[in-house]
Amino acid sequence: MSRFSTFAILSLAAGLLAASPASAADPVRIGIAAPFSGSAATYGQDTKQGAELAADEINAKGGILGGRKIELVFEDDKGSPQGGVAAVQKLMSVERVNAITGGTNSSVVLAESSVTRNKVLHVNAAAQADAITDQGSPWLFQVNNTVSGNSSAFNDYIVTTMKPKSVAYMGENTEFNKTVLELLKEKLKGAGIELVNVSTYDAETNDFTSIITKIKSLNPDMLYVADAYPARAAQLWKQVRQLGGFSKEVMSPGVIVPGMLKPAEGAMDGVITGEIFMVPAPSPEAKAFIEAFNKKWNGNPGKGHLVIYEAVHLIAAAMDKAGTEKDYAKISQTIRDNAWPSPRGELKFDAKGRARAPYFFIQQVKGGVLTQLEVAKVN
C-alpha cells in the first residue's frame, strides 16, 4: 500500500472519529402541529407556551441521551384535517423530526394519525375523541383525558346535582361532538331526563340565531353546547345572550380556555363546564408547574398549556430511558411499562395508549374567569 493511500485512510478515519461527537450532540427534534391560524388559533398559542417551558426545563438540566438538547419545530395545522395532514407530512419528510406532538382538535388529530401511523412516535396532547386511540396504533399515545373519561364525570354532575327537567343540545358535527352527544343521551335517558332537541352545524357556521330561536321555543330547562373552537364558541354565546339565555347552561368539558372567555366579553358568565386541571391546584407538583409558567410567561397556565408540557416531557423522558430517539417500538414499550411524573401526579398509559387524570374539576364562569364548584374523581 502506498504512503498516499495509508495517509488517505488514516485521514478518513480521523475525520469520522472527529464527526462522532458532533453527531452525538445533534438536537432531538420534536415536531409540534397545532392551530396557529383560524378559529382555534388560541389553542396554538397555548401549545407554543407550554411546549417551550418544557423544552427549557429539559435543556437546562442537560438535555437527554448524553447531553443532546430538545429542539421544537412548530407547524400550523390551521385547525383543519387537511391542514393537519400537510403539517405532519412536512414535519416528517422535510424537518425530519424524531417525534410528533401537539394536536388540539379531534378531527385534525384523527387525520394526522393516518399519516404518522407506524412511521413515527405520535403523542396527542389535547384532542379528546376516543376514536383517536381506538385505532390501536402502537406508537400513538394520548395525554389528555378522552371524551368518555371527561363526559362520565361531567354528566354525573348534570344529572345528580343540576337535575334539569329537560335538555336541548347544540354543537358542531365533528367526531368529538358525536361522542359527547352519544354519552349525554345515554346518561339523560338513564336519569329519566328528556332531551328535547339536537341541533348540529358545520364548521363554517357563525350565525346561530335560527338554532337558538328554535331551542328557545321548546323552553328547555338546560342548554348544552358542544363546540371546541374558541372564536366560534364565543360568538355562539354572545348570540345566546342576545336572545335571552337559558335558566341552566353548560358547555362540553375540556374546551373552555381564556382565549374563548376573553372574546366572549362576559357572555359566558354562568356557564358550567368541567376540566382536568385548575388553578389553584391540589399538589406540590402542580404548584411548581404554575410557578414556573408564571415566571416565564407572566400569567397562569390552563389545561392547554399543561398537556403539551406533559407531552414534551414524556417524549424526552421516554427516549432518554429507552436510550434511543429512533427505535419507536422500544420507546413506546418504555412509555407503557413505566409511570411518568407530571403536575397532575403520575401518568400511566393503558393498552390503548391513554393516560387519565386523577381529578376532574367542575367549574363555572364568573366575571369572565373559570371558578371551581367542586372536585370529582374520574371513574
TrEMBL record:
Q: Which residues form the signal peptide?
A: 1-24
SUPFAM superfamilies from the UniProt entry: Periplasmic binding protein-like I
GO terms for biological process? amino acid transport
Record's superkingdom?
Bacteria
Q: Which Pfam families match?
A: Peripla_BP_6
Q: Which residues form a coiled coil?
A: none
Keywords noted in UniProt: Amino-acid transport, Signal, Transport
| InterPro entries in the cross-refs | BCAA_transport, Leu-bd, Leu_Ile_Val-bd, Peripla_BP_I
Annotated Leucine-binding protein domain ranges read 27-368
Q: Which family does it belong to?
A: Belongs to the leucine-binding protein family.
Supply the name of the protein: Amino acid/amide ABC transporter substrate-binding protein, HAAT family
User: Organism source for this protein?
Assistant: Bradyrhizobium lablabi
